[in-house]
């Protein structure tokens, strides 16, 4: 583990909010353990191990039923830790993999059998080297045959340049962490409104309303991020997903308490109907149907 890396919370609180039956944590990771699943030689950070058993115990502790595990950059295109977690989850986890353009149809079919339903394109410069758009378009063509979707991770200043590329993708696209808005600029600010417009104009684009811990200056209540999340839940109730982001790689400001993150949910999805869509119906449609 890197010397300045903050490990995840050792004993998160019990949330006050009770998630509906069958709730899905649709953004979380497994890291290692390194002796079994080494980190990638090209990684930009070395995290604290965060095993599938610890993830599944957290799921139960928080009152959730299922996980969507997203391949993180520290494992590169080696999806073995992810696939192991999926295969031993008892059908309670689905995955989003990271692949290169050499990936074969046979490899993709094996991943599908394990529970992978999407690929992630990461544009965050501190996490990955730049990959040519042609590589991503090639992967997009291959995964479309399986009915998979594409998860994209970028930061708000990069959205404008990415829009033409996103419009070329004709699968469902899921944007990680609301495109990482700068929450000091306001919901009505140009950047966030550009993101809202992107979803309004493109019915194939979904977003995760996640990761207030990375965007806030008001931990642990995250009240400065709530209006952004709530706007998206209310405007696009059928295209939003929620996730813990456990084990919260590369946090600097604080170590989030996952119970407190769950307690943000009723503030962003204030009705039972919105909670059911966000936590159950939307992720089940995308990952388990
Ligand atoms: C996250 C966030 C991060 C890391 C990764 O792929 C990754 O390494 O996703 C981050 O540092 O922002 O949980 O999506």
Question: What's a concise summary of this model?
Answer:
The chain has 289 residues and is an alpha/beta fold. Helices cover 35% and strands 12% of the residues. It has one domain: TIM Barrel, CATH 3.20.20.
Layout of helices and strands:
Blueprint: E1 24-28, H1 52-62, E2 66-70, H2 80-87, E3 93-97, H3 105-114, E4 116-122, H4 133-144, E5 149-153, H5 159-168, E6 173-175, H6 190-201, E7 205-208, H7 212-215, H8 226-235, E8 240-241, H9 258-262, H10 265-268, H11 272-287
Parallel strand pairs: 1-2, 2-3, 3-4, 4-5, 5-6, 6-7, 7-8
The structure holds (1E,3Z)-4-hydroxybuta-1,3-diene-1,2,4-tricarboxylic acid.
Structure overview:
The chain has helices at 52-62, 80-87, 105-114, 133-144, 159-168, 190-201, 212-215, 226-235, 258-262, 265-268, 272-287; strands spanning 24-28, 66-70, 93-97, 116-122, 149-153, 173-175, 205-208, 240-241. It is an alpha/beta fold and 289 residues long. The chain has a single domain, classed as Alpha-Beta Barrel (TIM Barrel). It has an eight-stranded parallel β-sheet, sandwiched between helices. β3 (93-97), α3 and β4 (116-122) form a beta-alpha-beta unit. Bound molecules: (1E,3Z)-4-hydroxybuta-1,3-diene-1,2,4-tricarboxylic acid. (1E,3Z)-4-hydroxybuta-1,3-diene-1,2,4-tricarboxylic acid (0GY) binds next to loops.
Descriptive labels:
single chain; 289 residues; alpha/beta; TIM Barrel; eight-stranded parallel beta sheet; 11 helices; 35% helix; 12% strand; globular; binds (1E,3Z)-4-hydroxybuta-1,3-diene-1,2,4-tricarboxylic acid
């Amino acid at each position: 583990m890197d010397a300045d890396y903050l490990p995840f919370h050792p004993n998160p609180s019990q949330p006050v909010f009770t998630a509906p039956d069958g709730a899905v944590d649709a953004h979380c990771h497994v890291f290692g353990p390194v002796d079994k699943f080494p980190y990638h030689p090209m990684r930009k950070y070395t995290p604290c191990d965060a095993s599938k058993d610890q993830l599944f115990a957290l799921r139960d502790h928080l009152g959730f039923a299922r996980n969507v595990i997203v391949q993180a950059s520290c494992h590169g295109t080696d999806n073995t830790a992810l696939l192991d977690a999926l295969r031993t989850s008892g059908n309670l986890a689905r995955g989003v993999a990271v692949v290169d353009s050499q990936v074969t149809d046979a490899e993709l079919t094996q991943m599908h059998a394990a529970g992978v339903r999407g690929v992630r394109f990461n544009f965050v410069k501190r996490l990955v080297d730049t990959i040519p758009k042609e590589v991503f378009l090639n992967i997009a063509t291959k995964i479309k045959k399986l009915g998979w979707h594409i998860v994209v991770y970028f930061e708000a200043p990069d959205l404008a340049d990415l829009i033409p590329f996103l419009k070329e993708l004709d699968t469902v696209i899921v944007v990680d962490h609301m495109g990482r808005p700068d929450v000091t600029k306001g919901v009505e600010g140009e950047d966030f409104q550009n993101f809202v417009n992107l979803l309004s104009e493109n019915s194939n684009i979904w977003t995760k309303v996640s990761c207030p811990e990375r965007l806030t200056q008001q931990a642990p209540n995250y009240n400065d991020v709530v209006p952004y999340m709530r706007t998206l839940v209310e405007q696009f109730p059928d295209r939003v997903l929620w996730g813990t982001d456990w084990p919260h790689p590369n946090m600097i400001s604080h170590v989030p308490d996952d119970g407190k993150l769950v307690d943000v949910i009723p503030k962003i999805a204030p009705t039972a109907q919105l909670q059911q869509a966000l936590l159950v119906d939307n992720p089940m449609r995308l990952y388990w149907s």
